[in-house]
Amino acid sequence: MDRPAYNYDIVKHFVHWSILWGAVSVLVGVIISFQLVMPQLNFGEYLSYGRLRPVHTNAGIFGFAVGGFFALFYYMVQRLCRVPIWSNGLARFQLWLFNIIIVLSAVTLLLGFSQSKEYHEMEWPIDILIAVLWVGFTINILMTIFKRREPQMYISLWFMMAALIGVAVLFVVNGLSVPVTLFKSYSAFAGTNDANVQWWYGHNAVAMVLTVPPLAVFYYFLPKSTGVPIYSHRLGIVAFWSLIFMYLWTGAHHLLWTPIPDWVQTLAMAFSIMLIAPSWGSVINGYLSMNGQWHQMRENYLVKFFILAITFYGLQTLQGPMQAVRSFSGFIHYTEWIPGHVHMGTMGWITLLICGAFYYLAPRLYGRELYSIPLANLHFWLVLIGQLIYSVSMWIAGVVQASMWHSLNDDGSLTYTFVDSLLAMYPYWWIRGLGGVIYLLGIGVFVYNIAMTARGAQTPQQAAQQA
Fold it and tell me: The pTM is what?
Protein backbone atom coordinates (compact mmCIF):
# COMPACT_ATOMS: atom_id res chain seq x y z
CA MET A 1 0.00 0.00 0.00
CA ASP A 2 1.14 3.55 -0.72
CA ARG A 3 2.19 5.38 2.42
CA PRO A 4 1.04 9.03 2.39
CA ALA A 5 3.82 11.62 2.64
CA TYR A 6 2.62 13.37 5.77
CA ASN A 7 3.94 16.87 6.43
CA TYR A 8 5.32 16.75 9.95
CA ASP A 9 7.62 19.71 9.38
CA ILE A 10 4.81 22.26 9.76
CA VAL A 11 3.62 20.42 12.86
CA LYS A 12 7.10 20.70 14.35
CA HIS A 13 7.32 24.45 13.69
CA PHE A 14 3.95 25.14 15.30
CA VAL A 15 4.98 23.04 18.31
CA HIS A 16 8.13 25.14 18.75
CA TRP A 17 6.35 28.49 18.52
CA SER A 18 3.48 27.35 20.73
CA ILE A 19 5.94 26.34 23.45
CA LEU A 20 7.76 29.68 23.15
CA TRP A 21 4.60 31.75 23.50
CA GLY A 22 3.39 29.51 26.32
CA ALA A 23 6.59 30.08 28.28
CA VAL A 24 6.29 33.85 27.69
CA SER A 25 2.68 33.80 28.89
CA VAL A 26 3.50 31.97 32.13
CA LEU A 27 6.50 34.24 32.80
CA VAL A 28 4.38 37.37 32.30
CA GLY A 29 1.66 35.81 34.46
CA VAL A 30 4.10 35.34 37.32
CA ILE A 31 5.33 38.93 36.94
CA ILE A 32 1.83 40.42 37.08
CA SER A 33 0.90 38.24 40.06
CA PHE A 34 3.75 39.82 42.02
CA GLN A 35 2.96 43.31 40.71
CA LEU A 36 -0.20 43.23 42.84
CA VAL A 37 1.80 42.77 46.05
CA MET A 38 4.96 44.63 44.99
CA PRO A 39 3.91 47.82 43.17
CA GLN A 40 7.55 48.66 42.46
CA LEU A 41 7.50 45.89 39.86
CA ASN A 42 5.25 48.07 37.68
CA PHE A 43 8.09 49.41 35.55
CA GLY A 44 6.59 52.51 34.02
CA GLU A 45 3.58 52.90 31.79
CA TYR A 46 4.36 50.21 29.22
CA LEU A 47 5.22 47.43 31.66
CA SER A 48 2.47 48.12 34.18
CA TYR A 49 -0.10 45.56 35.27
CA GLY A 50 -2.77 47.11 33.03
CA ARG A 51 -0.60 46.67 29.92
CA LEU A 52 0.93 43.28 30.78
CA ARG A 53 -2.27 41.54 31.81
CA PRO A 54 -3.82 41.39 28.29
CA VAL A 55 -0.41 40.34 26.93
CA HIS A 56 -0.49 37.44 29.40
CA THR A 57 -4.00 36.31 28.49
CA ASN A 58 -3.57 36.65 24.73
CA ALA A 59 -0.14 34.98 24.68
CA GLY A 60 -1.57 32.10 26.68
CA ILE A 61 -4.85 31.63 24.82
CA PHE A 62 -3.84 32.53 21.28
CA GLY A 63 -0.07 32.04 21.31
CA PHE A 64 0.22 28.81 23.29
CA ALA A 65 -3.24 27.20 23.07
CA VAL A 66 -4.22 28.15 19.52
CA GLY A 67 -0.65 27.64 18.29
CA GLY A 68 -0.69 24.22 19.92
CA PHE A 69 -4.01 23.36 18.33
CA PHE A 70 -2.66 24.43 14.93
CA ALA A 71 0.13 21.88 15.38
CA LEU A 72 -2.10 19.14 16.72
CA PHE A 73 -4.87 19.67 14.15
CA TYR A 74 -2.37 19.41 11.31
CA TYR A 75 -1.00 16.21 12.79
CA MET A 76 -4.39 14.63 13.55
CA VAL A 77 -6.13 15.55 10.29
CA GLN A 78 -3.44 13.83 8.24
CA ARG A 79 -3.51 10.67 10.33
CA LEU A 80 -7.30 10.49 10.61
CA CYS A 81 -7.87 11.17 6.91
CA ARG A 82 -4.83 9.23 5.65
CA VAL A 83 -3.86 12.04 3.28
CA PRO A 84 -1.25 14.82 3.46
CA ILE A 85 -2.21 18.41 4.22
CA TRP A 86 -4.12 19.90 1.29
CA SER A 87 -1.71 22.85 0.86
CA ASN A 88 1.77 22.96 2.38
CA GLY A 89 2.24 26.50 1.06
CA LEU A 90 -0.89 27.73 2.81
CA ALA A 91 0.25 26.08 6.04
CA ARG A 92 3.66 27.84 5.84
CA PHE A 93 1.93 31.16 5.14
CA GLN A 94 -0.24 30.56 8.19
CA LEU A 95 2.82 29.89 10.36
CA TRP A 96 4.43 33.21 9.39
CA LEU A 97 1.20 35.18 9.73
CA PHE A 98 0.47 33.58 13.11
CA ASN A 99 3.76 34.75 14.60
CA ILE A 100 3.48 38.20 13.02
CA ILE A 101 0.05 38.60 14.61
CA ILE A 102 1.30 37.51 18.04
CA VAL A 103 4.16 40.04 17.92
CA LEU A 104 1.92 42.86 16.62
CA SER A 105 -0.65 42.09 19.30
CA ALA A 106 1.93 42.19 22.09
CA VAL A 107 3.46 45.45 20.87
CA THR A 108 0.14 47.27 20.36
CA LEU A 109 -1.23 46.08 23.72
CA LEU A 110 1.91 47.28 25.52
CA LEU A 111 1.50 50.65 23.78
CA GLY A 112 -2.07 50.87 25.06
CA PHE A 113 -4.03 50.25 21.85
CA SER A 114 -6.99 48.16 22.89
CA GLN A 115 -10.70 47.65 22.24
CA SER A 116 -11.02 46.82 25.96
CA LYS A 117 -12.97 43.64 25.18
CA GLU A 118 -11.98 40.55 27.14
CA TYR A 119 -10.13 38.05 24.87
CA HIS A 120 -10.65 40.45 21.94
CA GLU A 121 -8.49 43.43 22.83
CA MET A 122 -6.63 43.84 19.54
CA GLU A 123 -7.66 46.71 17.28
CA TRP A 124 -9.27 46.37 13.87
CA PRO A 125 -6.17 46.04 11.59
CA ILE A 126 -4.99 43.04 13.63
CA ASP A 127 -8.55 41.67 13.65
CA ILE A 128 -8.45 41.59 9.85
CA LEU A 129 -5.13 39.71 9.90
CA ILE A 130 -6.59 37.22 12.40
CA ALA A 131 -9.59 36.66 10.12
CA VAL A 132 -7.27 35.99 7.17
CA LEU A 133 -5.22 33.59 9.30
CA TRP A 134 -8.26 31.66 10.44
CA VAL A 135 -9.85 31.46 6.98
CA GLY A 136 -6.61 30.04 5.57
CA PHE A 137 -6.40 27.48 8.36
CA THR A 138 -10.06 26.52 7.94
CA ILE A 139 -9.73 26.04 4.18
CA ASN A 140 -6.63 23.88 4.62
CA ILE A 141 -8.20 21.60 7.24
CA LEU A 142 -11.59 21.28 5.53
CA MET A 143 -10.04 20.56 2.13
CA THR A 144 -7.88 17.88 3.73
CA ILE A 145 -11.00 16.32 5.24
CA PHE A 146 -12.87 16.52 1.92
CA LYS A 147 -10.00 14.71 0.14
CA ARG A 148 -9.66 12.03 2.82
CA ARG A 149 -9.02 8.38 1.97
CA GLU A 150 -10.46 7.15 5.26
CA PRO A 151 -14.28 6.79 4.93
CA GLN A 152 -15.00 6.91 8.65
CA MET A 153 -15.30 10.29 10.37
CA TYR A 154 -13.71 9.87 13.78
CA ILE A 155 -15.09 12.01 16.64
CA SER A 156 -12.02 14.29 16.69
CA LEU A 157 -12.81 15.51 13.17
CA TRP A 158 -16.27 16.63 14.28
CA PHE A 159 -14.80 18.68 17.11
CA MET A 160 -12.19 20.14 14.76
CA MET A 161 -14.77 21.28 12.20
CA ALA A 162 -16.98 22.81 14.90
CA ALA A 163 -14.04 24.82 16.22
CA LEU A 164 -13.17 26.11 12.75
CA ILE A 165 -16.69 27.34 12.04
CA GLY A 166 -17.51 28.48 15.58
CA VAL A 167 -14.41 30.64 16.05
CA ALA A 168 -14.93 32.33 12.67
CA VAL A 169 -18.53 33.31 13.43
CA LEU A 170 -17.83 34.44 16.99
CA PHE A 171 -14.72 36.47 16.20
CA VAL A 172 -16.12 38.27 13.18
CA VAL A 173 -19.43 39.24 14.82
CA ASN A 174 -17.83 40.49 18.04
CA GLY A 175 -15.15 42.32 16.04
CA LEU A 176 -17.62 44.39 14.03
CA SER A 177 -16.55 47.98 14.60
CA VAL A 178 -16.28 51.44 13.06
CA PRO A 179 -12.60 52.42 12.55
CA VAL A 180 -11.69 55.99 13.51
CA THR A 181 -7.92 55.86 13.11
CA LEU A 182 -5.40 53.12 12.41
CA PHE A 183 -5.41 52.05 16.06
CA LYS A 184 -8.81 53.22 17.28
CA SER A 185 -12.29 51.94 16.58
CA TYR A 186 -15.71 51.87 18.22
CA SER A 187 -17.88 48.78 18.51
CA ALA A 188 -20.78 48.45 16.07
CA PHE A 189 -22.94 47.62 19.09
CA ALA A 190 -23.81 49.84 22.03
CA GLY A 191 -24.85 49.57 25.66
CA THR A 192 -26.33 46.29 26.85
CA ASN A 193 -26.26 44.93 23.29
CA ASP A 194 -22.51 45.41 23.20
CA ALA A 195 -22.11 43.66 26.56
CA ASN A 196 -24.35 40.81 25.47
CA VAL A 197 -22.48 40.28 22.19
CA GLN A 198 -19.13 40.55 23.97
CA TRP A 199 -19.97 37.77 26.44
CA TRP A 200 -21.69 35.69 23.79
CA TYR A 201 -18.25 35.84 22.18
CA GLY A 202 -16.24 35.71 25.42
CA HIS A 203 -17.77 32.59 26.88
CA ASN A 204 -18.00 30.86 23.54
CA ALA A 205 -14.37 31.66 22.88
CA VAL A 206 -13.89 29.44 25.92
CA ALA A 207 -16.13 26.91 24.16
CA MET A 208 -14.68 27.03 20.65
CA VAL A 209 -11.03 27.62 21.60
CA LEU A 210 -10.59 26.10 25.07
CA THR A 211 -13.15 23.28 25.05
CA VAL A 212 -13.92 21.95 21.57
CA PRO A 213 -10.30 21.79 20.22
CA PRO A 214 -8.90 20.19 23.38
CA LEU A 215 -11.66 17.59 23.30
CA ALA A 216 -10.64 16.79 19.72
CA VAL A 217 -7.09 16.34 21.01
CA PHE A 218 -8.20 14.26 24.00
CA TYR A 219 -10.28 11.85 21.92
CA TYR A 220 -7.30 11.23 19.65
CA PHE A 221 -4.32 11.14 21.99
CA LEU A 222 -5.78 9.19 24.94
CA PRO A 223 -6.40 6.06 22.80
CA LYS A 224 -3.09 6.53 20.99
CA SER A 225 -1.12 6.78 24.25
CA THR A 226 -2.91 3.90 26.03
CA GLY A 227 -3.20 1.58 23.05
CA VAL A 228 -6.90 0.92 23.72
CA PRO A 229 -9.91 2.41 21.87
CA ILE A 230 -12.15 5.11 23.25
CA TYR A 231 -14.97 3.55 25.29
CA SER A 232 -17.88 4.76 23.15
CA HIS A 233 -17.71 6.64 19.87
CA ARG A 234 -21.50 7.02 20.01
CA LEU A 235 -21.32 8.66 23.44
CA GLY A 236 -18.70 11.01 22.04
CA ILE A 237 -20.94 12.01 19.14
CA VAL A 238 -23.97 12.56 21.43
CA ALA A 239 -21.81 14.64 23.79
CA PHE A 240 -20.50 16.61 20.82
CA TRP A 241 -23.86 17.65 19.37
CA SER A 242 -25.42 18.47 22.74
CA LEU A 243 -22.33 20.45 23.78
CA ILE A 244 -22.41 22.51 20.58
CA PHE A 245 -26.12 23.22 20.95
CA MET A 246 -26.05 24.16 24.64
CA TYR A 247 -22.83 26.19 24.79
CA LEU A 248 -23.99 28.95 22.45
CA TRP A 249 -26.73 30.07 24.87
CA THR A 250 -24.63 30.46 28.01
CA GLY A 251 -22.68 33.71 27.50
CA ALA A 252 -25.03 35.97 29.47
CA HIS A 253 -24.28 34.14 32.72
CA HIS A 254 -21.34 36.58 32.89
CA LEU A 255 -23.92 39.36 33.07
CA LEU A 256 -26.17 38.25 35.94
CA TRP A 257 -27.40 41.15 38.10
CA THR A 258 -26.80 43.62 35.24
CA PRO A 259 -29.26 45.59 33.04
CA ILE A 260 -29.39 42.67 30.59
CA PRO A 261 -33.05 41.49 30.41
CA ASP A 262 -33.92 38.90 33.06
CA TRP A 263 -35.12 36.37 30.50
CA VAL A 264 -31.71 36.44 28.79
CA GLN A 265 -29.99 35.89 32.13
CA THR A 266 -32.34 33.05 33.03
CA LEU A 267 -31.85 31.39 29.64
CA ALA A 268 -28.09 31.52 30.07
CA MET A 269 -28.34 30.20 33.62
CA ALA A 270 -30.54 27.26 32.54
CA PHE A 271 -28.33 26.23 29.64
CA SER A 272 -25.22 26.58 31.80
CA ILE A 273 -26.62 24.04 34.25
CA MET A 274 -27.68 21.71 31.42
CA LEU A 275 -24.14 21.94 30.04
CA ILE A 276 -22.96 19.62 32.82
CA ALA A 277 -24.43 16.63 30.93
CA PRO A 278 -22.53 16.84 27.60
CA SER A 279 -19.37 18.00 29.36
CA TRP A 280 -19.37 15.03 31.67
CA GLY A 281 -20.30 12.78 28.75
CA SER A 282 -16.74 13.25 27.51
CA VAL A 283 -15.27 12.97 31.02
CA ILE A 284 -17.06 9.67 31.63
CA ASN A 285 -16.06 8.47 28.17
CA GLY A 286 -12.43 9.08 29.08
CA TYR A 287 -12.70 7.36 32.46
CA LEU A 288 -14.50 4.31 31.05
CA SER A 289 -11.83 4.04 28.36
CA MET A 290 -9.42 3.32 31.21
CA ASN A 291 -11.33 0.23 32.41
CA GLY A 292 -8.68 -2.39 33.08
CA GLN A 293 -5.98 0.15 32.17
CA TRP A 294 -5.64 2.23 35.33
CA HIS A 295 -2.23 0.68 35.97
CA GLN A 296 -1.00 2.85 33.09
CA MET A 297 -1.31 5.87 35.38
CA ARG A 298 1.83 4.47 37.08
CA GLU A 299 3.54 2.88 34.11
CA ASN A 300 2.85 5.29 31.23
CA TYR A 301 3.91 8.87 31.88
CA LEU A 302 1.64 10.20 29.10
CA VAL A 303 -1.57 8.86 30.63
CA LYS A 304 -1.18 11.03 33.75
CA PHE A 305 -1.28 14.16 31.62
CA PHE A 306 -4.45 13.17 29.77
CA ILE A 307 -6.42 11.78 32.71
CA LEU A 308 -5.61 14.69 35.03
CA ALA A 309 -6.44 17.07 32.19
CA ILE A 310 -9.90 15.58 31.66
CA THR A 311 -10.39 15.52 35.44
CA PHE A 312 -9.79 19.25 35.65
CA TYR A 313 -12.14 19.71 32.70
CA GLY A 314 -14.78 17.81 34.65
CA LEU A 315 -14.26 19.92 37.77
CA GLN A 316 -14.32 23.07 35.65
CA THR A 317 -17.66 22.11 34.13
CA LEU A 318 -19.17 21.54 37.56
CA GLN A 319 -17.85 24.75 39.05
CA GLY A 320 -18.85 26.88 36.02
CA PRO A 321 -22.58 25.98 36.10
CA MET A 322 -22.57 26.48 39.87
CA GLN A 323 -21.26 30.00 39.32
CA ALA A 324 -24.03 30.60 36.76
CA VAL A 325 -26.71 30.32 39.44
CA ARG A 326 -27.87 33.82 40.35
CA SER A 327 -27.58 33.47 44.12
CA PHE A 328 -24.06 32.07 43.99
CA SER A 329 -22.99 34.52 41.28
CA GLY A 330 -24.20 37.39 43.45
CA PHE A 331 -21.80 36.19 46.15
CA ILE A 332 -18.59 35.37 44.29
CA HIS A 333 -18.66 37.36 41.04
CA TYR A 334 -15.86 39.94 40.71
CA THR A 335 -13.90 38.22 43.50
CA GLU A 336 -10.63 36.27 43.39
CA TRP A 337 -12.68 33.09 43.09
CA ILE A 338 -13.05 33.78 39.35
CA PRO A 339 -9.30 33.75 38.50
CA GLY A 340 -9.06 30.52 40.50
CA HIS A 341 -11.83 29.01 38.37
CA VAL A 342 -10.35 30.21 35.08
CA HIS A 343 -6.83 29.03 35.85
CA MET A 344 -7.97 25.56 36.89
CA GLY A 345 -9.03 25.27 33.24
CA THR A 346 -6.05 26.94 31.59
CA MET A 347 -3.30 25.59 33.86
CA GLY A 348 -4.91 22.21 34.49
CA TRP A 349 -7.10 21.14 31.57
CA ILE A 350 -5.53 22.95 28.59
CA THR A 351 -1.84 22.95 29.48
CA LEU A 352 -1.65 19.38 30.77
CA LEU A 353 -3.45 18.17 27.64
CA ILE A 354 -1.26 20.06 25.15
CA CYS A 355 1.95 19.14 26.97
CA GLY A 356 0.93 15.47 27.01
CA ALA A 357 0.18 15.61 23.28
CA PHE A 358 3.53 17.32 22.59
CA TYR A 359 5.33 14.61 24.56
CA TYR A 360 3.56 12.01 22.44
CA LEU A 361 4.60 13.84 19.26
CA ALA A 362 8.23 14.43 20.23
CA PRO A 363 9.63 10.99 19.28
CA ARG A 364 7.63 11.04 16.04
CA LEU A 365 8.71 14.55 15.04
CA TYR A 366 12.40 14.22 15.92
CA GLY A 367 12.91 10.52 15.15
CA ARG A 368 14.30 9.67 18.59
CA GLU A 369 13.09 8.79 22.07
CA LEU A 370 12.12 11.51 24.53
CA TYR A 371 15.23 12.83 26.25
CA SER A 372 14.03 12.08 29.78
CA ILE A 373 10.85 10.46 31.06
CA PRO A 374 11.82 11.27 34.70
CA LEU A 375 11.97 14.95 33.69
CA ALA A 376 8.51 14.61 32.11
CA ASN A 377 7.24 13.20 35.39
CA LEU A 378 8.90 16.05 37.30
CA HIS A 379 7.25 18.53 34.92
CA PHE A 380 3.87 16.89 35.60
CA TRP A 381 4.16 17.13 39.38
CA LEU A 382 5.48 20.70 39.37
CA VAL A 383 2.65 22.03 37.19
CA LEU A 384 0.05 20.01 39.11
CA ILE A 385 1.23 21.33 42.48
CA GLY A 386 1.63 24.88 41.15
CA GLN A 387 -1.86 24.86 39.65
CA LEU A 388 -3.47 23.52 42.82
CA ILE A 389 -1.73 26.12 44.97
CA TYR A 390 -2.90 28.83 42.58
CA SER A 391 -6.52 27.74 42.29
CA VAL A 392 -7.15 26.72 45.89
CA SER A 393 -5.61 29.93 47.26
CA MET A 394 -7.82 31.99 44.95
CA TRP A 395 -10.98 30.07 45.87
CA ILE A 396 -10.33 30.70 49.56
CA ALA A 397 -9.46 34.33 48.83
CA GLY A 398 -12.68 34.74 46.87
CA VAL A 399 -14.83 33.43 49.71
CA VAL A 400 -13.03 35.69 52.21
CA GLN A 401 -13.37 38.68 49.89
CA ALA A 402 -17.06 38.06 49.20
CA SER A 403 -17.79 37.57 52.90
CA MET A 404 -16.17 40.90 53.74
CA TRP A 405 -18.02 42.71 50.96
CA HIS A 406 -21.37 41.35 52.14
CA SER A 407 -20.79 41.77 55.87
CA LEU A 408 -23.09 44.38 57.46
CA ASN A 409 -23.31 46.01 60.88
CA ASP A 410 -26.57 46.08 62.82
CA ASP A 411 -27.37 49.51 61.43
CA GLY A 412 -26.95 48.28 57.85
CA SER A 413 -23.60 49.91 57.20
CA LEU A 414 -20.67 47.98 55.76
CA THR A 415 -18.52 46.21 58.34
CA TYR A 416 -15.40 46.46 56.19
CA THR A 417 -14.15 49.10 53.79
CA PHE A 418 -12.94 48.16 50.34
CA VAL A 419 -9.36 48.83 51.50
CA ASP A 420 -9.88 46.34 54.34
CA SER A 421 -10.88 43.65 51.86
CA LEU A 422 -7.95 44.59 49.63
CA LEU A 423 -5.43 44.21 52.45
CA ALA A 424 -6.92 40.83 53.35
CA MET A 425 -5.97 39.57 49.88
CA TYR A 426 -2.23 40.10 50.24
CA PRO A 427 -1.40 36.72 51.89
CA TYR A 428 -3.37 34.89 49.21
CA TRP A 429 -1.69 36.87 46.45
CA TRP A 430 1.71 35.88 47.84
CA ILE A 431 0.62 32.23 47.88
CA ARG A 432 -0.66 32.56 44.30
CA GLY A 433 2.70 33.98 43.25
CA LEU A 434 4.45 31.00 44.86
CA GLY A 435 2.18 28.64 42.95
CA GLY A 436 2.99 30.52 39.76
CA VAL A 437 6.74 30.20 40.35
CA ILE A 438 6.41 26.43 40.89
CA TYR A 439 4.32 26.19 37.73
CA LEU A 440 6.90 28.22 35.79
CA LEU A 441 9.63 25.84 36.97
CA GLY A 442 7.57 22.97 35.58
CA ILE A 443 7.26 24.74 32.22
CA GLY A 444 11.02 25.29 32.27
CA VAL A 445 11.58 21.55 32.74
CA PHE A 446 9.18 20.90 29.84
CA VAL A 447 11.00 23.31 27.52
CA TYR A 448 14.37 21.79 28.44
CA ASN A 449 13.13 18.25 27.87
CA ILE A 450 11.69 19.03 24.44
CA ALA A 451 14.76 21.08 23.44
CA MET A 452 17.14 18.27 24.40
CA THR A 453 15.00 15.79 22.48
CA ALA A 454 15.06 18.04 19.40
CA ARG A 455 18.85 18.40 19.64
CA GLY A 456 19.30 14.66 19.78
CA ALA A 457 21.18 14.81 23.06
CA GLN A 458 22.01 11.53 24.77
CA THR A 459 19.38 10.49 27.27
CA PRO A 460 20.59 10.19 30.88
CA GLN A 461 20.19 6.38 30.58
CA GLN A 462 22.37 6.29 27.45
CA ALA A 463 25.03 8.44 29.11
CA ALA A 464 25.05 6.16 32.15
CA GLN A 465 25.40 3.05 29.97
CA GLN A 466 28.36 4.53 28.09
CA ALA A 467 30.00 5.58 31.34
Answer: 0.95
